[in-house]
Amino acid sequence: MDTCMLRDPLEAIGPSCASIVLSFLGPHDLARSGAVSRSWRHFALLDEQLWWPHLAQLWEGKVYVPTNLREVAKTSARRAYLASLRESDRQVPTEQELCAFTWELRFKAREGTKGGRDREASVPWFGSELGLLILHRYFHPNHTVTGPPDDPLWGDVEPQRHYWYFRPGPDGSTVLQVNTYPFLECRRTPDWSWELHSAAVRLAIDAAAGPNPGIPPGHPAASESLPLEQIEAKFTGLLAFAYSGRELDDDDYDTEDPEEGGRNDDGDDNEEEEEEEGEKCFVEDRARDES
């Protein structure tokens, strides 16, 4: 029997041709092909040139790609690709991420009005005037919230100091609390941005407006030094009072469009072969979800 018939086809055609052949595979099939043999594993999982196009396509059009993923990509496009898939499942921004952006705030207009980006019924006393407002808000590391000068709603001087903090929400989720307003649920969008929403308002990252400019010098919020523990204690008490002194239950947390929160998997690397098998299964699961 011809020994060529017994050779691995990728070894038979040589590395250059093997890379060309495998370059036609999508990330799902590329990950699966690594289980065929040692040589296929070498080409499919260790040839970085095969993964760079998939990583570039995955990142294309994304509002936010964390710096740590870009650092991973410098050493391994495949690992950066898989880490990016896991990152996109993370529903809640970190405090640093929350404070990094300019957020556009819109009130949810009444059903049938032309204001706002939402058509669903929400808060009945919000008219088209509020729905037409386009506002910007900035979250700061000292847990204050500010708006730009000449804000359409607040004017030059905000009517009260606004504070923010993350706290536990319903069903084990994490929500963003601003003063005693209805809490904001966090969810990831397809462009890897975030959306913060309640029954009344929706906030989204305004990439065109640039990053958070910080608190202007002389602004009252610049000198704010209230510790986070005191902020949480203050508004926990006020929220309890607002709900007639009773403990908050699941009915109080009821808001529109409930969605299951994602998770952030940041575990340590396992042994190389177990890791690659897990990565292959992960890519397969994501491909099935997206098909």
Automatic annotation (TrEMBL):
Q: Which domain of life is it from?
A: Eukaryota
Residues forming the F-box domain are 21-51
InterPro entries on file: F-box-like_dom_sf (IPR036047), F-box_dom (IPR001810)
Composition bias type Acidic residues, residue spans: 248-259, 266-278
Q: Where is the composition biased (Basic and acidic residues)?
A: 279-291
Residue numbers spanned by region Disordered: 246-291
| Record-given protein name | F-box domain-containing protein
Q: Which organism is it from?
A: Volvox carteri f. nagariensis
